[in-house]
């Protein structure tokens, strides 16, 4: 008996595709529930009397304190905090307006000895310190996410991934210096601390399971002394400045940047709102000699382009009169090693060291499921590979590498994890590679 199509093991592929197309698509997973405030939106604390009430409640509660700060980045020159949010088990959520306070010393006293939970602590610690709030211990949920190997560590993403809830983030770039603050903004701000206590508990368990608890402890302890890096020649970060040719054009860009920065600081306005970077580059390229020529220059625009035109012209005149020794160099001066792309020609052994070490770091980072920059700061790797310890005895070299990394600022867990691989890179680079074009004799 011939086989029927229903029983034929070699069914026509077209029939299979038709059958698959006829099958209903599996239903999409429902979206995660939207996070809402459990206790409702609290009133903003904007008086010393209200702060005293908040401090009493927070001091009487127990456990870690979730804390966040809202700044006006993109609107103001300063990095000050315009709203501080706090939540503690037993005390609920408090929204504090630091602009209206005489002092926040009572709040610092109320939080004394507690662990602070922050997300991306390096963003908030400077502005909190500015108003007298300094933690004695902390837990950073963003950094914990990095150590755990999460590919995306924004708060909203972690909350959805770890806690299964969605957060609105539409007010993240708001001008928090606005007064009064809109209710929708305040709701958004309160939600930022609503989840931190629960998120911390989940991450503590994950760190323990991954045997990374000690790594996190060392990282968090290191954050307590965090200070923002002071940028040398900050004007060189002007977007498009690399397109300028000639030291005088660079001098013009530097002078215009410094003039803009002074105006922005005085007015407490972000510099880009005075004059965009593109206008600085255009003016430095053309070097117009008077107000009319300046304002007629294509691409020279901005809120302060005309208002401060006399300042910009004066700056350019001053640059034209500078001597060569007063103009900036093409390359920034630094205390570190040259860029690794130049090593192959300048120091071939150092280049081999660096390439081997970088590959080893990438492999280690993959094995331990964390970003390579959290395994070891890239600048530490460059410095070590450019100027490694002199000894080549393996044991002594390991001790010296560990000590050198520690002197740069590497934490003990980092130095312990990478030293073996870096010693191998240093010793391996000493062996001259064979030339593939030379046949063996």
UniProtKB/TrEMBL annotation:
<dbReference type="InterPro" id="IPR044876">
    <property type="entry name" value="HRDC_dom_sf"/>
</dbReference>
<dbReference type="InterPro" id="IPR002121">
    <property type="entry name" value="HRDC_dom"/>
</dbReference>
<dbReference type="GO" id="GO:0006139">
    <property type="term" value="P:nucleobase-containing compound metabolic process"/>
</dbReference>
<dbReference type="InterPro" id="IPR036397">
    <property type="entry name" value="RNaseH_sf"/>
</dbReference>
<dbReference type="Pfam" id="PF18305">
    <property type="entry name" value="DNA_pol_A_exoN"/>
</dbReference>
<dbReference type="Pfam" id="PF01612">
    <property type="entry name" value="DNA_pol_A_exo1"/>
</dbReference>
<dbReference type="GO" id="GO:0003676">
    <property type="term" value="F:nucleic acid binding"/>
</dbReference>
<feature type="domain" description="HRDC">
    <location>
        <begin position="246"/>
        <end position="326"/>
    </location>
</feature>
<feature type="region of interest" description="Disordered">
    <location>
        <begin position="324"/>
        <end position="348"/>
    </location>
</feature>
<dbReference type="InterPro" id="IPR012337">
    <property type="entry name" value="RNaseH-like_sf"/>
</dbReference>
<feature type="compositionally biased region" description="Basic and acidic residues">
    <location>
        <begin position="332"/>
        <end position="348"/>
    </location>
</feature>
<dbReference type="InterPro" id="IPR041605">
    <property type="entry name" value="Exo_C"/>
</dbReference>
<dbReference type="GO" id="GO:0000166">
    <property type="term" value="F:nucleotide binding"/>
</dbReference>
<dbReference type="InterPro" id="IPR010997">
    <property type="entry name" value="HRDC-like_sf"/>
</dbReference>
<protein>
    <submittedName>
        <fullName>Ribonuclease D</fullName>
    </submittedName>
</protein>
<feature type="region of interest" description="Disordered">
    <location>
        <begin position="1"/>
        <end position="32"/>
    </location>
</feature>
<dbReference type="GO" id="GO:0008408">
    <property type="term" value="F:3'-5' exonuclease activity"/>
</dbReference>
<dbReference type="InterPro" id="IPR051086">
    <property type="entry name" value="RNase_D-like"/>
</dbReference>
<dbReference type="Pfam" id="PF00570">
    <property type="entry name" value="HRDC"/>
</dbReference>
<dbReference type="InterPro" id="IPR002562">
    <property type="entry name" value="3'-5'_exonuclease_dom"/>
</dbReference>
């Amino acid at each position: 008996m011939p086989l029927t199509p229903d029983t034929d093991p070699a069914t026509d592929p077209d029939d299979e595709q038709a059958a698959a197309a006829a099958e209903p698509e599996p239903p999409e997973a429902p979206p995660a529930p939207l996070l809402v405030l459990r206790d409702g939106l609290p009133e903003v604390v904007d008086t010393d009397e209200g702060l005293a009430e908040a401090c009493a409640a927070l001091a009487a509660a127990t456990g870690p304190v979730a804390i966040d700060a809202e700044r006006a980045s993109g609107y103001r020159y300063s990095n000050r905090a315009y709203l501080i949010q706090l939540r503690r088990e037993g005390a609920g959520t408090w929204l504090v307006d630091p602009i209206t306070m005489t002092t926040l010393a009572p709040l610092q006293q109320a939080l004394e000895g507690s662990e602070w939970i922050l997300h991306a602590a390096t963003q908030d610690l400077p502005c909190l310190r500015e108003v007298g709030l300094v933690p004695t211990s902390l837990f950073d949920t963003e950094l914990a996410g990095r150590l755990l190997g999460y590919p995306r560590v924004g708060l909203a993403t972690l909350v959805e991934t770890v806690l299964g809830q969605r957060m609105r983030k539409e007010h993240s770039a708001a001008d928090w210096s606005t007064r009064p603050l809109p209710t929708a903004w305040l709701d958004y701000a309160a939600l930022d601390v609503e989840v931190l206590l629960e998120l911390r508990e989940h991450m503590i368990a994950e760190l323990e399971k991954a045997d990374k608890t000690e790594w996190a402890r060392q990282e968090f302890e290191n954050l307590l002394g965090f200070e923002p890096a002071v940028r040398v020649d900050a004007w060189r970060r002007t977007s498009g400045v690399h397109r300028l040719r000639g030291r005088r054009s660079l001098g013009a860009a530097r002078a215009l940047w410094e003039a803009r920065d002074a105006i922005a600081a005085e007015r407490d306005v972000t510099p880009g709102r005075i004059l965009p970077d593109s206008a600085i580059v255009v003016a430095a390229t053309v070097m117009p000699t008077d107000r009319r020529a300046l304002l007629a220059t294509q691409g020279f625009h901005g809120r302060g382009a005309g208002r401060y035109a006399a300042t910009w012209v004066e700056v350019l005149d001053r640059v034209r009169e500078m001597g060569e020794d007063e103009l900036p160099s093409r390359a920034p001066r630094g205390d570190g090693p040259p860029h690794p792309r130049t090593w192959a020609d300048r120091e071939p052994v150092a280049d081999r060291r660096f390439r081997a070490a970088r590959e080893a770091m990438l492999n280690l980072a993959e094995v331990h499921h964390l970003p390579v920059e959290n395994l070891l700061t890239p600048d530490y790797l460059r410095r070590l590979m450019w100027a490694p310890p002199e000894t080549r005895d393996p044991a002594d070299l390991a001790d010296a590498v560990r000590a050198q990394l520690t002197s740069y600022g590497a934490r003990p867990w980092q130095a312990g994890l990478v030293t073996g691989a870096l010693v191998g890179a240093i010793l391996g680079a000493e062996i001259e590679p064979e030339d593939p074009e030379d046949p063996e004799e």
